[in-house]
Amino acid sequence: MSTPHADVASVTAWVGDATKAPSMHNAQPWKFLYSPASGVLQLRMDTTRAMPRTDSTTRGAHLSCGAALFNLRVAAARAGWTAAIGPVPDSADPVLLATVAFSQSAETEAVSELYPAIGGRRSSREPFTDEPVPDALLDELGGAARSEGASLSVLGPWQVDAVLDVVDEAEQDESLSREARDEIARWTGAGAGSSEGIPASSFGPSRHDGRAPVRDFAVGRPVPDRRTAVFERFPCLAVLGTAQDRRQDWLLAGQALERVLLQATLDGLSTSLNSQALERTDLRWVLRDPRAHASSGFPQMLLRLGYGPAVPATPRRAVSDVLEVRGDQPS
Prior knowledge:
Elements: H1 8-18, E1 30-35, E2 40-45, H2 59-78, E3 81-85, E4 96-104, H3 115-118, H4 135-147, E5 151-154, H5 157-176, H6 178-187, E6 206-209, E7 228-230, E8 236-242, H7 247-266, E9 270-274, H8 281-284, E10 298-306, H9 319-322, E11 323-325
Parallel strand pairs: 1-11, 6-7
Antiparallel strand pairs: 1-2, 2-4, 3-4, 5-8, 8-10, 9-10
Helix pairs in contact: 1-2, 2-7, 4-7
């Protein structure tokens, strides 16, 4: 007796949840290809959304696609399906990042409880309060990262100072690079109605004081009616890391990142991501903690955690723009 495959309507809904994942500059660099006959879904990188200046290795795009892949797993689990991730594709097809086969099971992944957070997760560019994040919550987030084969290192005070110095240097370099500014401008500042990028309304306030590492997407451009604000002087920062630094590790890191972000959302935390320092190889390695375990030897993302105001969601492309269904329905 053949194993039933997931129907197109279900896969379409799961892909819709997958696309709510964060991505670098909200470029949404993913494509999905589903074959109902085989029941296999391909996750592919959309190279038209590449950022050759700020993501020359496509590491950031891999992380973004990995985050979408984790959302897909959560959505499928909630519906009673297990999403089995196939072997990492070889270099012959570098834009094919993963294959997913769905099977119904009474014992799905334990991640289904994270589903309510998919729609509520936001990247906040607002100031956070001075309320400290409890150690118990930070430990829980570390466990979420470990569940996906990564690690989350919460930085101590001296590490925070060092990392913020690195971020400041990256910001300065970015402001002096016309290529970087042009690339950022392509994906940010769009008005209402755009389905991609970061609208000016989501830039958040400009920083009047404080040292929270919040990327300023204005990059010197005037933003009408933009307010200023005081950000945290001593932000709660954590570095997500992996043991290796291959394509499959980047995809793994993206899944771990989204698991951490969804858990943080359920815990009532606000979160933001900063990749500026990691976009430069020489600065990226400064974020490595020499005392850390080997599992975190390669930093993949800098996270800011805390308590802040609710912020609106950034736009998303229609599922019909990112999902292609090929072949006939199974008989």
